[in-house]
Amino acid sequence: MTALALSRIHFPITTLGPGKRVGVWFQGCSIRCPGCVSMDTWAAGKGMTTVADVLDTLAPVVSSADGLTISGGEPFEQSEALAALLRGWHRLGGGDVLVYSGRALEDLARALSELDGLIDAVIADPFLRAVPQTVALRGSDNQRLVTLTTRGVELFSAYEAPLPVGERALDVLFDDNTGDAFLVGIPRPGDMVKLAAALKAAGHSAAATEDVR
Ligand code: SF4
């Protein structure tokens, strides 16, 4: 039974890859990019579950999902769980796979070769707060989108273009059990801070992870 530290799962998400996707956020990241908007995923050892349990959760929605996006946290810090999850996803008949990593692309070469055929596209390199953000799917323009399969080329090449102004979007998702709301997607610099301030002014409890770009 392969252990996995999990932050959350959402379906459907529409802002991190093509179509209606399953989003899986790994818990734990030691990279600690200044300005990261996912600081809640940094702590290791939280959200312990198993890959089998995650696949049981995903199974009912696989046929409705166009693809899977794995983010975090740093998925490659749980390489065994990542590989098991990807194999399970494909056993279930799941669609394309996009994986985010804060590691440099060069440092992922060995891991990606071991996962050959299981990932269609990867977005690599750390988030850099001082670098502009104009390209789709990336938090900062230094991050590289690499297609790894024929399907990846077909589905993700279009994302190399700059994101047109007015086409930025975030998914808003609610946790029915806790009442929490999550925003999914790539916010513009300062968006999270502005949103938290607006919600607080309206009398809601709101917290934003650090984003002082
Ligand atoms: S941006 Fe990604 S890699 Fe960087 S600290 Fe945040 S979760 Fe980790």
TrEMBL record:
The keyword Iron applies. It holds the Pfam family Fer4_12. SUPFAM superfamilies: Radical SAM enzymes (SSF102114). Coiled coil: none annotated. Keywords: 4Fe-4S, Iron, Iron-sulfur, Metal-binding, S-adenosyl-L-methionine. The keyword Transmembrane does not apply. It comes from the Bacteria. InterPro entries: Aldolase_TIM, Organic_radical-activating, rSAM_sf. Its cofactor is [4Fe-4S] cluster. This is 4Fe-4S single cluster domain-containing protein. It comes from Methylobacterium longum.
